[in-house]
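If your schedule permits, I should be very grateful for your opinion on a structural question. What I wish to show you is a protein chain and, alongside it, a tokenised description of its three-dimensional fold. Would you kindly read the sequence against the tokens and tell me how you understand this chain to fold? Here, with my thanks, is the record as I have it:

===
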Amino acid sequence: MSDPRPHRRLLPNCEEVHHLTMKGMDRPLSWVERLRVRGHLAICDACTHFFGQMRMMREAMRRLGRDDGGSGGPGRP
């Protein structure tokens, strides 16, 4: 008799990696999520590129916030 529950694959597909990458920008991923993403990135150049772009964008936004000094923008207190 087969098990009716779907089994979670060890490696996520590209769509799941994109979702987890975006989720990881809002909160830390669990160790299982990180492991699954890293496993997929080891075999998928497209997702590795996407992950790098998201990391670069996140760092740019952090720098923008630091350089801005928390003000409302140019000419604003």
